[in-house]
Amino acid sequence: MFVFAFALEAASPFDGRWDIAIEGDNSRAWWLSLEGAGTPTAKGTFVSDYFGDLNKIDEISLDHGELTFGFRHKEDSREIHDIYKARLEGGKLVGTAQTEGSSEPPRHWIGVRAPVIQDKDDGSWREGQPVRLFNHKDTAGWRSLTPDKPFGWTVEDGILKSAGGASNLISDLLGSTGGE
């Protein structure tokens, strides 16, 4: 007779999806998803202001209750190492972000658990009012996320277009019904 014993590891309290706000900067948000934090097979994804897209996390570790994750990328032929650190405090992730070797102070951030969004209506979904963000005529109602960077956006044939290297946009109409 064979007896199989399995040791099931409890999920890490860091695992899951997190909505992150950067202290002192309400114009940006980050999103973090972690699986297996504290194990050799840890993996995760992150959306930040680094190009604003979903990035697979390069490195994840958990040491004495501190989560560390990071990315390595090239910028103007320099290797950049962005490091994020966090601890759990009152059910929230409280952390910092810093580029290794930078003289800039770390950016402080706080993460809260992201709500679970069902793939199918569980009866709680409610019809909302449409929000018109773009009038298809001009860039009225839009502004640059980075005021000191050239705007770089135009409207051609009813389509909002970037000339390349344009600033990220913020809609002034978000949260209102907008206009025609």
What does this structure look like?
The chain has strands at residues 16-22, 25-35, 43-47, 54-56, 59-63, 66-75, 78-89, 92-99, 107-113, 142-144, 153-156, 159-162, 169-171. The chain is an all-beta fold and 180 residues long. It folds into 2 domains: 16-113, Beta Barrel (Lipocalin); 130-180, no CATH class. A 9-stranded antiparallel β-sheet has the order 4-3-2-1-9-8-7-6-5, with no helix packed on it. The protein has a two-stranded antiparallel sheet with strand order 10-13. The radius of gyration is 21 Å and the shape is globular.
Features:
disordered C terminus; 180 residues; 2 domains; nine-stranded antiparallel sheet; globular
H/E series: EEEEEEEEEEEEE
Q: For the terminal residues, how far apart are their CA atoms?
A: 76 Å
- Radius of gyration over alpha carbons? 21 Å
Determine the structural class based on helices, strands and strand pairing: mainly beta
Strand order, largest beta sheet:
4-3-2-1-9-8-7-6-5
Mean pLDDT, nearest integer?
85
- What share of the residues does DSSP label as strand, in percent? over 45%
List the uncertain runs.
1-9, 175-180
Structure summary, number of beta strands: 13
What spatial form do the alpha-carbon principal axes imply? globular
Major sheet: size, sense and barrel closure? 9 strands, antiparallel
Counting H and I runs of at least 4 residues, what is the number of helices? Answer: 0
Helix content: under 10%
Instruction: Give the CATH topology of the largest domain.
Output: Lipocalin
Number of domains: 2
CATH second-level architecture of the largest domain? Beta Barrel
